[in-house]
Design goal:
The complex is a heterodimer. A six-stranded mixed beta sheet of chain A has the order 5-6-7-3-8-9, sandwiched between helices. Helices cover about 35% and strands about 25% of the residues of chain A. By secondary structure, chain A is of the alpha/beta class. Chain A has one domain: P-loop containing nucleotide triphosphate hydrolases (Rossmann fold, 3-Layer(aba) Sandwich). By secondary structure, chain B is an all-alpha fold. Chain B has one domain: MetI-like (MetI-like fold, Orthogonal Bundle). Chain B is built from ten helices and no strands. In chain B, α4 crosses α5. The longest helix of chain B has about 35 residues. Classes of the chains: A alpha/beta, B mainly alpha. At the A-B interface, α3 of A face α5 and α6 of B.
Chain lengths: ~240, ~230
Amino acid sequence: MVSQDLYAQLHGVVVQRRDKAVLGPLDLDLSGGGFTIVLGPNGAGKTTLLKVLHGVDRLTSGSVSWTVPAKTVRQGQAYVFQRPIMLRRSVRANLAYPLQLLGLPKAEISACVAHWAARIGLSAELDVPAPRLSSGEQQKLALARALIRRPDTVFLDEPCSNLDGRSTREIEDILCDASAAGARIIMTTHDLGQARRLADRVLFLNKGQVEEQGPADRFFTAPKSPGAIAFLNGDIIE
Amino acid sequence: MNEIWAGMAEAFLLIWSLDADLIDITLRSLQVSLSALVIASALALPLATWLAIRRFRHRRFVIATMNALMGLPPVVVGLIVYLLLSRTGPFGVLGLLFTPAAMIIAQVIIITPLIASITHQAMRELWSDYHDLLISLNTTHGQRIATLIWDGRRALMTAALAGFGRAIGEVGAIMIVGGNIDHVTRVLTTAIALETGKGDFALALGLGFVLIALSLCVNLAIHTLSRTEREGLW
């Protein structure tokens, strides 16, 4: 059962780069738990939307308001980037880093690190420098590093692009576990199969605008907007 | 050519006989240069890292000034420090002129921009890699600086070694503020200058070889201790 609680509201949000609007103007309510999958063609503004919600990208105009106090919003969020960013440290140190920032006791950090290393199958590589891992392993490590703080909202920007089927399944399993534990997952993907497997709700973006949003079942069976219909048909959207 | 062989022989003799004067000035060279390096690094590393991650008005001007200061003429630095520390200067009351402390001050002024400039370049590249992650993790400015300094420590070691190289080989400023006083402020470079002036080229060259060997030893020791080559692929 997906919660319908309002999470965030975007009011007239515009993000411009070099005088060109890459997102908005956008008015949007985000609500509910589970998986919200953001779909759309390249350049639609999916990544920018995620970064705006996470506070990594600055708004040109408009505002984002939260139903939780602004100070605690970021503490409850985590972000997994499309290209995993590895600290130039060991796998162990990468996993421990977010917990060290929180000032947790060493014993607790060690236990969490061991748990998550086992969860992503990197227990034997704990002392290996993270930049030496394969791209699939790096993405799993980035996901574990994001989830190790038990965030209530996780943003993922195409986390499975360039990964094989096995790695994709492992990442989806971890995400499903996190969702079952109560985390709200907001994720972009180009993989319609993955969207169908995971989505509770879909947000379809095109040219910086939300063209359609709603429950996943309705979106996949009866899309309304021409852009969404074309996208689901596999047509090229320009 | 004969002078060079004579110099090498002199250097060997000085080291072999554990010449008391040589040990005295070598230790003072190390003391002054390492002290200056520690102080300059403590100033330059956080400052340059802060400059890499902060955006503020006139930032480019500050960075350009920092880079320009790398080329500070040591003699001019020595002269200014001399005037500041002389009896009639604003800091004359401290009585630091013609002491190793004055030499350290001059060297700090000379090598801080060099260390800061190299550090800034390295930190800017690392920050572009880490920017999104550290923002995403809601880190404070202090945590960002600490993370960049730790993860970029090998690049920073290069900056520090460049600073040490400039400090240990510096002569103009420390000659002016130190005065090259025997057993007080004489270091390897000022001793070389003195012996050259006296025409004792063999001894000057011998001291020069000792200086080069010392610089090499310190560099190798730091590389070995920090395990640069073993973990260099990170």
